[in-house]
Amino acid sequence: MRGQTAVEYLLVFSTALVLFASVTMAQMITPASDAARDSLYLSQARSAADAIAGAIDTVYANGRGAVKSVSFQMDTSWTLQLDNIGNKLRIIVETSKGTENVEDNLRYEVDNYHSLSGITTGTYTVIVEWPENGSIRENINSSALANKKIYIYIRPRGR
After folding, report:
1. Residue 138 near residue 90 (C-beta atoms within 8 A)
2. Cβ-based neighbour number of residue 18 at 10 Å
3. Nearest to 155 by CA among 85, 66, 49
4. Contact 73/44 with Cβ under 8 angstroms?
5. Which of 4, 10, 28, 84 has its Cα between 20 and 30 A from that of 18?
6. What local confidence, expressed as pLDDT, does residue 56 receive?
């Protein structure tokens, strides 16, 4: 009798431990995977912001007629903004905690506020150009967005 009771006790105790361990592990893994995913999205946004800001500043430094393109991968939907208050380039990404902003300063003085939202995931090429044609205004052109291309036209104030 005592042997059977001990075996039953061990069986019940080990089942309880397995259940406790499985619940605890599931609660530990889910937040860790969310944090890793958020870290990836923010890292991609930082890389994209640095690349685009660098391209804008390079085109601005090289003058009228200059063109530069950069490519990068984004695994979440995002928004691109050129903010004339403080001359900032901003990329907004959706994370598990809500939206996060990644900003980069520009040497180029942004004339107006420009925004392109709802950009889907994928590998994008951003082409920054200071057109020789003076009639093209500063803007973010999304007409080639289906081909994963975004055109940014700069035109410094008074030029």
Report:
1. no
2. 10
3. 66
4. yes
5. 4
6. 95
Rounded to 10 degrees, what is the CA torsion of 138, 86, 93, 33? 150
Sign of the torsion formed by the C-alpha atoms of 87, 88, 89 and 91: negative
SS3 content of the chain, % helix, strand, coil (to 5): 40, 35, 25
Tens-digit pLDDT profile for residues 16-26: 878 777 777 66
Can you tell me the distance from the alpha carbon of 28 to that of 70, in angstroms, rounded to the nearest whole number?
38
Q: Backbone phi, then psi, for 111, in 5-degree steps?
A: -80, -40
User: Band of the pLDDT at 36, cuts 50, 70, 90?
Assistant: confident
Nearest to 155 by CA among 145, 47, 139: 139
pLDDT digits (tens, 9 = 90+) for 117-155: 999 999 999 999 999 887 788 899 888 888 999 999 998
Domain spans, the chain: 32-153
Other C-beta atoms closer than 10 Å to the C-beta of 112 total 10
Q: At 79, list the tokens.
A: 């928004």
Q: By percentage, how much of the chain surpasses pLDDT 70?
A: 91
Question: How far is the C-alpha of 90 from the C-alpha of 85, rounded, in Å?
Answer: 11
